[in-house]
Write a structure and sequence with these properties.
The complex is a heterodimer of chains A (about 575) and B (about 400). Chain A has about 575 residues and is α+β, with helices and mostly antiparallel strands. Helix content of chain A is about 55%, strand content about 10%. Chain A has 20 helices and eleven strands. In chain A, a hairpin with a 6-residue loop joins β7 and β8. Chain A starts with 6 loop residues before the first helix and ends in a 6-residue tail after the last helix. Chain B has 16 helices and no strands. Helix content of chain B is about 70%, strand content about 0%. The N and C termini of chain B lie close together (about 10 Å). In chain B, α1 runs antiparallel to α16, α7 packs across α12 and α10 packs antiparallel against α12. Classes of the chains: A alpha+beta (about 575), B mainly alpha (about 400). The interface between A and B is large, with 50 and 56 residues.
């Protein structure tokens, strides 16, 4: 059967695709109805959404920057909160009564100073800034040793409440090199509308550095969500690839993979992750050899063009590109191609050794255009092939290596050709043993993420393997195989789309689990640095003051529990929708 | 397949996994960036031995076999493992096997008690949840099951410490409710501090490294068991409050309650869900309907007919929850300052004491695999269908 003869088939399959799209829309609305029924699931969704919103708007909600340093030793006026560790909603947190001490560490040069707030972070350009404060009442003036100095040596300006004049007597007295001024200020500016009346920074209390715990917990959500999503997505990808290979091919491959996962299951995840973090101790930068950096975009490019071509020629797809422009458009819609472009553009800078060009935007545009042209040329070549493609005697010819009339074989050979071309260009460029830095600052947070990915993939591999074994026996897989579809296509186009439901559930549950284990690793001192805004680290920092300063433990822990609970409830709700027989 | 054939096959399947685990620990030891020889000789590494003309560093490397090729090192490592030589801890300056042997019983004791607390809670709530399906109780217990799994263990442990805390400032809930003074449950340590620092003059252990580990041992390492086998002579050296075996036992038991409860809560959560699902499945079976039709009372149907069958799959989870409990012990032990495997592992990793890291990884794997082996054998005995696969 040639392309022209398959016209009817394609029309039929186009109709089927439309039908199935409508079915998906119907299913989605039905699923939402099922999901909506469960209070737990909806509240889980609400919790996840609220944590995501909080992490997104942390700059706006937070009272101060989480890493604000109070011990500022620069030659400027600085201020700090007098109460170091304040209980939540304690007297010290009442902004009407809060005392701010104003300290100089060196003798000043001017006879005036401004009352400035602590450092805040600007959400737009992420710079630190201070606001001026309106002084209501001066409380005390002390010298460096804490002995009182007459308060009338300083005065507040009559017109400007934030301007403080220093009398000549104090300026000229060389025995005072450092003074400390305590005053009450009108805190209305710093007071957020959502805080209870009268209280400013202290709804969660402050730590021993006087830093606001509430802001730290808010910013901690960013770290935790980032770790959760990164680790869960990477584990899903690795686990899916390994599990589907193991399940699809079976036999010896399966046996080896399963024995490896046995080892991972035999050692508790936390101990394994700890050992792995220790093993990564010496790694400071995450480097990728240049040949791998070349291989990844090329692989994406091949996959992109491959699926575009398969879409246009396979009898099952029914989408025939009418002209070159339309085929170009269909390429741009392809996710694999978009991924290729992203990788290509982001890595274009480090590729200097490959193409010997400067790291400029012109080069990146040029690179993108070059890639598009390359794909266009390939598509034109493909179209020429498509017209000659034949499906006659397909089954018999699948084993032949060089079969130009077999579109799959053609595509495989072409991918190989593209890769070889890339390698040749790479050799010509002269920089064969170069490397590019993927993660410049490979800190402890990165290490625990890598460790968690390393310990997490076997779970997914087993899950996907089971699903693949189940789906593999179904009739449509048999049909695809009998048409001569290659294993890769059967796996990713036929089997995996039918195994996504438990994967989605496991993914959601895994985000929660990852947040738990990451905070556990941080807690035992392997994750974030001391005083970082990370929930596990906050609990660990608070342990020094434990039973007395209970709030340092309670609130970060509640944040972990809340987020994990949200993801777990959400995952459970999704399970009810996609797998109703498990629910009962 | 006969039962004994199944058992033999199951044991043979363990061998490749065990070999893989040793390969695994060996690879980890190879990539850990610490040179054990340099740690052992410390500042004297540069000194030259007059007899051989080599530096102390080179001599240490030779002694540890680090100058041999990697494959040979692996074979030496394997054969040493077989002979019980697990290497030497650079942090404790003791053989690793001794460090692990001292630590493992403490973790095992705690995990055992955790399962002892978690299982009844999980199973009973699971049964009630399945019987009263879709009731308010069911919803609440399902929520609790998810919540138990979501709570960070280290946080839960510290909150329990706060509730039962003995500090003068906080007091906890014990003092107002039970009228005790200074809390009703100990929140730190495996045993009372008075037992850690006994009468120095009559101490049999002369090394300073013994002190933190000192406990009147009965030989097994399990404190609950040991407390009954401490000789009267050893008891006389202890604090007068602990002059009887019963008092020692009481002390170890009360120190176990909070850590075990912390660990048990997490396993109870997952168990509740499995038990509920399993029982619901069984309740739909034909023989349950038959039993009901015969007029057997509902209580008897659920507890005798259904539960016996629903509990069979739960056995598999038992094997896995032992692994989970040991993993959770890492955090619990750090908080309750138990000198178990978890705490030893954390300390070993902070100072990169690689032989202890390997030892702990290996021993946890062995414990997990043995537990699963026993569970599988029990499974095969209880449920003959398993053997036929």
């Amino acid at each position: 059967m040639t392309w022209k003869e398959g016209e009817e088939d394609r029309k039929e399959s186009l109709r089927r695709i439309k039908e199935s799209l409508a079915q998906i829309r119907l299913d989605a609305s039905r699923s939402w109805k099922v999901f909506r029924r469960s209070i737990l699931a909806v509240s889980g969704l609400a919790m996840v959404v609220s944590v995501s919103l909080i992490s997104f708007f942390a700059d706006d909600i937070a009272v101060e920057h989480p890493s604000r340093d109070l011990q500022d030793t620069r030659d400027t006026w600085t201020n700090d909160y007098e109460p170091k560790r304040a209980e939540p909603f304690s007297e010290e947190c009442d902004w009407h009564k809060q005392s701010i001490s104003l300290t100089t560490l060196r003798r000043w040069d001017y006879n005036w100073t401004e009352a400035l707030s602590h450092e805040k972070v600007n959400p737009f350009d992420r710079t630190l800034y201070r606001e001026t404060l309106d002084v209501i009442e001066l409380i005390s003036l002390e010298d460096r040793l804490g002995y009182p100095i007459p308060l009338d040596l300083v005065s507040v300006d009559e017109d400007n409440d934030s301007l403080i004049w220093i009398s000549d007597e104090l300026m000229e007295n060389t025995s005072y090199t450092t003074v400390k001024l305590t005053y009450v200020f009108d805190n209305q500016e710093m007071h957020h509308w959502w805080l209870p009346d009268g209280y400013d920074v202290c709804i969660f209390g402050t730590n021993n550095e006087g830093q606001d715990l509430f802001s730290k917990v808010l910013y901690g959500s960013r770290v935790s969500l980032k770790i959760g999503f990164t680790v869960a997505s990477l584990t899903v990808v690795i686990g899916t690839v390994v599990g589907s290979i193991s399940g699809y091919y079976g036999g010896r491959v399966d046996e080896v993979v399963m024995r490896i996962t046995d080892v991972f299951f035999a050692v508790p995840g936390l101990i394994l992750a700890m050992a792995f973090v220790a093993a990564l101790e010496a790694v400071e930068r995450f480097i990728m050899p240049l040949w791998l950096a070349v291989l990844i975009p090329v692989a994406f490019l091949s996959i992109a063009t491959r699926s575009v071509v398969s879409d246009s020629i396979l009898p099952s797809s029914g989408l025939k590109p009418k002209d070159t422009l339309q085929s170009l458009y269909s390429i741009l819609k392809n996710p694999a191609f978009v991924a290729f472009l992203v990788i290509f553009v982001t890595l274009a800078g480090p590729w200097k050794g490959l193409f010997i060009v400067t790291d400029s935007w012109i080069w990146r545009v040029f690179a993108s255009v070059f890639a598009i042209m390359m794909v266009a040329a390939l598509v034109v070549a493909d179209r020429a092939m498509v017209d000659r493609a034949s499906f006659d005697g397909f089954r018999q010819r699948t084993r032949e290596v060089f079969d130009w009339k077999n579109p799959y074989r053609y595509l495989t050979l072409r991918t190989l050709a593209v890769f070889i071309a890339a390698v040749i260009i790479h050799r010509w460029s002269g920089d064969t043993d170069g490397e590019i830095t993927v993660i410049r600052d490979f800190d402890r947070l990165w290490k625990i993420q890598v460790a968690l990915v390393f310990t997490g993939w076997p779970g997914y591999a087993r899950l996907i393997r089971g699903q693949v074994l189940y789906v593999k026996e179904m009739a449509f897989v048999e049909a695809a195989r009998s048409v001569g579809a290659p294993s890769g296509r059967i796996m990713f186009r036929h089997i995996l789309p039918n195994a996504w439901a438990p994967l989605l559930v496991a993914f959601t549950l895994d985000i929660g689990g990852t947040i738990l284990s990451a905070s556990g690793l941080s807690f035992i001192g392997l994750g974030a640095e001391p005083f970082a805004a990370e929930w596990g680290r906050l609990v660990s920092d608070g342990r020094t003051y434990f039973p007395q300063d209970w709030w340092l433990i309670l609130f970060p822990g509640l944040a972990i529990a809340f987020t994990t609970l949200g993801f777990n409830l959400l995952g459970d709700g999704i399970r009810d929708v996609v797998d109703p027989k498990n629910r009962r | 397949m006969k039962t004994h054939e199944f058992i033999v096959r199951r044991i043979l399947l363990l061998v490749p996994v065990m070999v893989m685990v040793t390969v695994f620990t060996f690879v980890i030891s190879q990539i850990i960036p610490a040179d054990p020889a340099a740690i052992l000789c410390g500042e004297r590494c540069g000194l030259v031995d007059p007899k051989t003309g080599k530096t102390l560093l080179e001599l240490q490397r030779e002694r540890l076999g680090l100058n041999k090729p990697v494959t040979e090192q692996f074979w030496i490592y394997l054969s040493n493992l077989m002979e019980g030589d697990w290497g030497e801890s650079t942090a404790y300056h003791r053989p690793t096997s001794e460090v692990v042997r001292d630590a493992a019983p403490i973790t095992l004791e705690m995990s055992f008690f955790a399962l002892l607390i978690g299982y009844p809670i999980g199973i009973s709530l699971g049964i009630l949840s399945a019987v009263w399906q879709d009731s308010v109780f069911d919803h609440i217990s399902r929520f609790m099951a998810i919540a138990f799994v979501s709570l960070p263990i280290f946080w839960l442990a510290m909150m329990l410490q706060l509730l039962f805390s003995t500090g003068p400032d906080v007091g906890g809930i014990c003092d107002p409710i039970f009228g005790t003074e200074g809390g009703c449950l100990p929140i730190y340590g495996r045993h009372d501090v008075a037992l850690t620092f006994p009468d120095y003059t009559s101490l049999t252990c002369t090394q300073i490294s013994c002190y933190p580990w000192y406990y009147p041992s009965g030989g097994t390492g399990f404190h609950l068991v040991d407390s009954w086998f401490v000789t009267d002579q050893a008891l006389s050296t202890l604090h007068p409050e602990y002059s009887t075996n019963g008092a020692l036992f009481n002390d170890s038991l009360t120190h176990l309650i909070l850590p075990s409860f912390t660990l048990g809560i997490a396993s109870a959560g997952s168990l509740l869900r499995y038990m509920r699902a399993s029982l619901l499945e069984v309740l739909n079976e034909d023989y349950v309907r038959t039993a009901r039709a015969k007029g057997v009372s509902e209580r008897r149907v659920v507890l005798i007919h259904a539960c016996r069958n629903a509990l069979v799959p739960i056995l598999t989870i038992l094997g896995f929850s032992i692994g989970g409990a040991i993993g959770g012990a890492v955090l619990t032990e750090s908080i309750f300052s138990f000198n178990g495997m978890g705490r030893v592992a954390v300390q070993a990793i902070t100072v990169l004491d690689f032989s202890v890291i390997m030892g702990v990884t290996l021993i946890t794997a062995v414990i997990f695999l043995l537990a699963n082996l026993i569970v599988d054998i029990m499974y095969a005995v209880i449920d003959p269908r398993v053997r036929l696969e």
